[in-house]
Amino acid sequence: MKKMFSKGLVLSSVLLLLISCKKEEAVVAVIDTTKIKEEIQAKENEFAETYNTGVMKEIGYFADDAITYPQNNQPVTGKEAIIEYLKSHIDTISKGKKISFTTNEVFVAKDGEQVVELGNYKVVDSTQTVVNSGNYMTLFVKKDGKYYSLRDMSTSDTPN
Questions:
Q1: pTM for this one?
Q2: Among residues 124, 137, 136, 131, which one has the least CA distance to residue 158?
Q3: 106: exposed, middle or buried (C-beta count within 10 Å: 0-12, 13-18, 19+)?
Q4: pLDDT in tens, 63-111
Q5: Which residues neighbour 29 within 8 Å (Cβ) at sequence distance 6 or greater?
């Protein structure tokens, strides 16, 4: 009887211990996709405004190890090389024209550290006639609380 009581006490203790141990649930960060989309659109607006001035400069858009895949050209690697590429093409692309970007969709990683943006662009002349337009895709990564373009590519939908 004493043995049976001891077994019952041990079994009850184990059951009580198992029941009382609560499994820790992982804290999941709440991702505000609307806010992130607005943040990405603001970056695109700043990029367009800078580009439209005709003076290409570092504005915190590209990551140091960014790669851009420009239309009809080889990939350009590194923030400094991308800025130089844009400077060398700014007259042929933007002189007398204005570019604008529209963020259509963002796909945010569960941790919010990466965002894929799908958007479209439009280039208009001084009479607001569309002279070029197309679509683009950009992968942004978060560093020090800000998003930077890590990879981007675009394609024109304007016939040659």
A1: 0.78
A2: 131
A3: buried
A4: 999 999 998 899 999 999 999 998 888 776 667 899 999 999 999 999 9
A5: 110, 111, 112
